[in-house]
């Protein structure tokens, strides 16, 4: 799983620039562009939190929503064979391809967000 920073309901990426010798990232899942950086993990986390706090303060001051909603529209590029398989499967289920993909993503996200449950070991013999 990718390392992510979390703060006040926001998620941010963690990346490294070898050329600049700096850690950096951006807030994901919102329409605004919020970036941050630091020479150390501690600095990166500090700048991330400051960027979020600034965004929240700015939104409150200007009466803008803190979390700008995404539109719900995005383009997905997949190989043609998978596209064909999904189209057939959605037709067999009697739903649109859009609905089929939405259900698939929803199922995957719910699985990812579910608390970790260790598998039981099978007894042998």
Describe what this molecule looks like in 3D.
By secondary structure, this protein is α+β, with helices and mostly antiparallel strands. The protein has two domains: 4-61, no CATH class; 80-113. The chain is built from three helices and five strands. A hairpin with a 2-residue loop joins strand 1 (4-7) and strand 2. Helix 2 crosses helix 3 (97-113). It starts with a strand and ends in a 12-residue tail after the last helix.
Question: Oligomerization state of this entry?
Answer: single chain
Number of helices: 3
Q: What overall form do the CA principal axes indicate? A: extended
Q: Tell me about the largest β-sheet.
A: 5 strands, antiparallel
Distance between the termini: 36 Å
How many beta-strand elements?
A: 5
For the record, the count of structural domains works out to 2
Low-confidence stretches: none
What is the averaged pLDDT score?
87
Return the string of H and E elements. EEEEEHHH
Strand content: 15-25%
Which bin fits the share of residues in helices? 40-55%
**Secondary structure category:** alpha+beta
Rg over CA atoms: 20 Å
